[in-house]
């Protein structure tokens, strides 16, 4: 739970800190951005996750394997939070505003106004992270 909270928190903070323009890269200059690659990557990740859990559930010692798998996953997620905390690299793609939510205007944020007139919930956006989104409950 701590690893998940740290990852979600750091992704929310980094989303507003990281620069908008990607770093210059020779490969990305030669090969144009492929919009279909996002969908293919999501499908392949889902298929491999389902296959892995199927293999674990059909294993003779499934509880031992499942416990070890969750322990390794938690350790890797915790280390991911450490890496996210020390590196702020810009995205490798150009159409960040199409894919991600826009950055927050920090000068327009007032604490009491937000606390009394907004509805806070967590949303999954297509950048593969969870972000805390605030919607105005008054209007």
The parts where pLDDT drops under 50 for at least 5 residues are 128-139
Strand composition percent: 5-15%
**Average of pLDDT:** 75
Give the class from helix and strand content and strand pairing: mainly alpha
The topology string of helices and strands comes to HHHHHHEE
Number of helix segments?
6
Distance between the termini: 34 Å
Number of strands: 2
InterPro entries: Sphingomyelin_synth-like
GO molecular function: ceramide cholinephosphotransferase activity; sphingomyelin synthase activity
GO biological process, one term: sphingomyelin biosynthetic process
Transmembrane segments: 36-58, 70-89
What does it look like?
By secondary structure, this protein is mostly helical. The protein contains six helices and two strands. The protein has one domain (2-21, 35-136). The protein has helices at residues 2-17, 26-30, 36-58, 62-86, 96-99, 111-117; strands at residues 118-124, 130-136. The longest helix is centred in the middle third of the chain and has 25 residues, at 62-86. The model is unreliable at 128-139 (pLDDT under 50).
């Amino acid at each position: 739970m701590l690893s998940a909270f740290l990852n979600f928190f750091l992704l929310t903070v980094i989303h507003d800190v990281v620069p908008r323009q990607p770093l210059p890269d020779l490969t990305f200059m030669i090969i144009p951005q492929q919009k279909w690659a996002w969908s293919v990557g999501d499908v392949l990740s889902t298929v491999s996750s389902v296959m892995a859990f199927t293999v674990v559930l059909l294993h003779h010692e499934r509880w031992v394997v499942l416990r070890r798998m969750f322990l390794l996953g938690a350790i890797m997620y915790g280390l991911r939070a450490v890496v996210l905390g020390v590196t702020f690299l810009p995205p490798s793609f150009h159409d960040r505003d199409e894919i991600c939510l826009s950055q927050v205007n920090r000068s327009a944020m007032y604490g009491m106004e937000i606390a009394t007139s907004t509805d806070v919930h967590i949303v999954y956006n297509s950048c593969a992270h969870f972000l805390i989104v605030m919607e105005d409950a008054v209007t």
